[in-house]
Amino acid sequence: MNNFSAIEPTDDLARVAEIEAAVARLSAAKAEVDRVIFGQGDVVERSLIAILCGGHALLVGVPGLAKTKLVATLGTVLGLDERRIQFTPDLMPSDILGAEVLEQAASGERAFRFIKGPVFAQLLMADEINRASPRTQSALLQAMQEGFVTIAGTPHALPTPFHVLATQNPLEQEGTYPLPEAQLDRFLMQVDVDYPDREAERRILLETTGLDDATPSAVLSRDELMDLQTIVRRMPVGETVVEAILDLVRSARPEENDELAGKIAWGPGPRASQALMLASRARAMLQTRLAPSREDVIALAEPVLQHRMALTYSARADGHTVKGVIKQLTSKI
What we know:
Elements: H1 12-36, H2 41-52, E1 57-60, H3 67-77, E2 82-86, H4 93-97, E3 98-104, E4 110-116, E5 123-127, H5 134-137, H6 139-146, E6 148-151, E7 154-157, E8 163-168, H7 181-184, E9 189-192, H8 198-208, H9 222-234, H10 239-251, E10 264-266, H11 270-286, H12 294-305, E11 310-311, H13 313-317, H14 322-330
Parallel strand pairs: 1-8, 1-9, 2-5, 5-8
Antiparallel strand pairs: 3-4, 6-7, 10-11
Helix pairs in contact: 1-3, 2-11, 10-11, 10-12, 11-12, 12-14
């Protein structure tokens, strides 16, 4: 039996009722997203998990898999102000953050005024983020980690909540700039978007090529979403789950695992453990459970760890993959 983190006994019934109410609201929100996005159940679930954790997600998939539509749908269903930036090689940091302009009043007095860029949104879609130059990519670093941006030495707070859902095409590498490790680590998880199965694609054909196309409706408000994010952080976690997270993340570091020392160039840091803890709680809530289990840790190991690890050259030459290594590590939990 799990030994849950300390909770006052008098709070038990209230906590259970709070989580059950949150589960009902989340189920309605997920059902609304699934009504518009077909055949991407895991992608929808993991995107919702990232938002419930207050984090960011990197969606990796070929064009035409509804990544852009997913972000727009999530913005509507969750009651968030959603904006989109198309990343291109000529995009400048000021195109994202905003800039100061010099204005002259009728009296002749001049002053600088800050004009906010599209980053000032509650849900930001960074489309094809790896097409922008490293200088422009780094403009998002402070925003994603600190929740504010600094322009001309003056900090400007971003809206709350603030989430980035970025997309990346895994096939086209010409004219792209790989994301640096520091920025990859800002993403709570990497969500791989695969092709839908045959029945889901049949539904896509029948329901999206006619005169009427499904449009999402708002289910949650911004305040309700922030309340749910607070509830996720207050969910009890069993000691066995904590130990499973520590065992998994620490075993993915070359200095901690002699068996994989020649395969892993560098492994995940403590931020990966934090992400896995929060994501396990959010997944449990989405699946109408009151506490996470080790199955949640195993299910989320790949999206949380794969962008926080790198294999050695010899391991890649021998045909090993990051996903294969993670599967090997999770099999021991």
